[in-house]
Predict the 3D structure of the following.
Amino acid sequence: MSVGKEFTKGLYAENPVFKQALGLCPTLAVSNSVRNAVGMGLAMTFVLVLSNIIVSLIRRFVPRKIRIPIYIVVIATFVTIVDLVMAGFAPDLHKALGIFVPLIVVNCIILGRAEAFAGRNSVFRSLLDGLGMGFGFSLALFVLAFIREILGDGRLYGFPLLGPGFEPMLIMILPPGAFLTIGLLMGLMNWLDKRRCS
């Protein structure tokens, strides 16, 4: 696979949320506002890129029988860094994201990329894979949050967008709105893929 495709595959063709349905728990939980979505997307991208790099660097030295616990320790190290930095420099965001920041340790996207890709490829390709998958996850979160925040609150980052006569749809910022939005977006992407193939 070419370098460009290695990076861009996470944006659409292998998007972790819309195509692989991975990491749905934090996706559904934090996508009620764009601010939360951007924060979680950056945190995940940071952990994904750095853990991919380290796993790729140590892959030849790690015995196969204990690779998963070692990968989890590597991932947990970067999650701890993100958690402490966010708590120190963005306490409001840290509070809003809550338990979902520490739970990045067991996020199936990160562990899956470490096992399926970084554990078998070079550092450069693992870096590109981490960036692409991280940006793909962030993009999915942003799109979901954008739709949910505008329809559920009529605002974006606190600025009114739809005018004073708009009646917000409360369901969009609640969990059912998350399921509805992600289901419709997945359906739209599948429909677009079928149209493109036919």
Notes: The chain has eight helices and two strands. The helical segments are 3-8, 24-30, 34-58, 67-89, 91-97, 108-118, 123-153, 175-197.
